[in-house]
Amino acid sequence: MSGLFGIVSKNSCATDLFYGTDYHSHLGTRRAGLSTIDNGVMHLNIHNIQNSYFRTKFSDDLHEMAGNMGIGVISDTDPQPIVVNSHLGRFAVCTVSKINNMAELEEKCLSQRQQFTELSMGGTNPTELIALLITQGRDFADGIRNVYRSIKGSVSFLVLTEHGIIAARDFLGRTPLVIGRRGTDYAVASENHSYINLGYQTIRYISAGEAVMITPNGIEQLVEPSNKMQICSFLWIYYGYPVTQYEGISAEEVRYKLGSAMGKHDDVDADFVSGIPDSGVGMALGYAIGKGIPYKRGIMKYTPTWSRSFMPVNQESRSLVAKMKLIPCSSILKGKEAVFCDDSIVRGTQLRDQVKMLYEAGAKKVHIRISCPPLIHGCTYLNFSASKTDMELIARRCIEELEGGQIRNLEAYRDHTSKQYATMVEKIRQHVGVDTLKFNSLEDVCDAIGLPKEQVCTHCFDGSSYDVGTLAENQLKMDL
Ligand code: SF4
Questions:
Q1: What's the pLDDT at 29?
Q2: Per-residue model confidence (pLDDT) at position 387
Q3: Is 41 helix (H, G, I), strand (E, B) or coil?
Q4: Ligand 1 pocket test, candidate residues 233, 376, 468, most atoms within 8 A of CB
Q5: Residue numbers of the domain that contains 362
Q6: Distances from the Cα of 282 to the Cαs of 243, 252, 269, in angstroms?
Q7: pLDDT tens digit string along 93-108?
Q8: What H or E segment, with its residue span, contains residue 422?
Q9: Do 222 and 355 share a structural domain?
Q10: How many domains does the chain have?
Q11: Does one domain contain both 343 and 452?
Q12: Does 179 sit in the ligand 1 pocket, CB within 6 Å?
């Protein structure tokens, strides 16, 4: 995923930038970077955060981050921000992106005698590509439209210029950006919880496809919003820090509603409900009220050293971390029938290990309840590290098994009222090794979020999708 943060102030921005960026640490595990501008001079610091916290790595750099404006990023992919000197002036850019046509765009740029300097995990750095696409425009607005027209996938980005920060949200708004104000200071962020303790209050959500210039004198629109939105539903289900709001809708509230909807219609007998930390907790609290049974902590996270919610990219280390950071509470579980709520099932291997731990700790029966439908399609719009390919998904593998080694009849497996759906869920249940298993429906997810379905991306559940490049090309044609 990755998270962005920026500050525009009349005073030094370093402290706010440091804490605001740090509050996005749950969105990435690889790299972090800060850039400030001070009288036309750009300062840049990038560190690897794979084995250390953002604060530990950046606290010694704070005194170098001079200036009243700055941008920061917690990146799950490439080193960033990238600093560029171009006909548009000197600027720094950081991105949350997934570019599916990297090779095609790279080739096009090279054939136009442009070059790339940064390497990222053995290839071209996607943020450098975005910087290059911006510089192909007559001005920043034109460059941003060029980014929207060119990329297939998604990208939201911040551009630090001498005059202010440009905040551009993905053409279909898959990833969010929000602006907060404290007196004459502005913060712009992926998640609005990041500036609450710094004293900023949310004044506006940037719309899908919109780009604004934020200066110490106010906010000016550079690019008008697009006429469609497809914000990622998984932000509310899993990615988002619970107190965050997207489009004014709280992640914690949505998780609570998903639990309550499940609890109201669940006919299982259980002594209590628990949440698998952290993202299953909100759902479990809602389930307890919906079902009318107590909430208890049957499994707990060892928070002193395992406080980050994301996992290492490597599957082996991910399984080990998942196992080590959760501890079952045998005094609560012994001889009891328990419901456990979780956000989703991706490969199913971690949940299988966790369920085994619960039985070993003495649980008589374990019932798993999942806040969203089975994941049938891999995400092609975000760097959702846990589901790189369709065939890694447990639901897909079960469908393949049920269909004699082929992937077919997906429409039927997506329909939660069908016989095929029931047999797929039963297969997943056997794989996880649990007494009973239930998923919320897509309707439950859309009801809990409260936005019309066509404004929310649900591709990983139902395969629906838009070709952003073509949509952007059509809508932005007049601006060419
Ligand atoms: S495919 Fe799933 S994870 Fe990816 S943007 Fe859409 S809803 Fe989010």
A1: 86
A2: 53
A3: strand
A4: 233
A5: 249-462
A6: 11, 6, 21
A7: 999 999 999 999 999 9
A8: helix 419-432
A9: no
A10: 2
A11: yes
A12: no
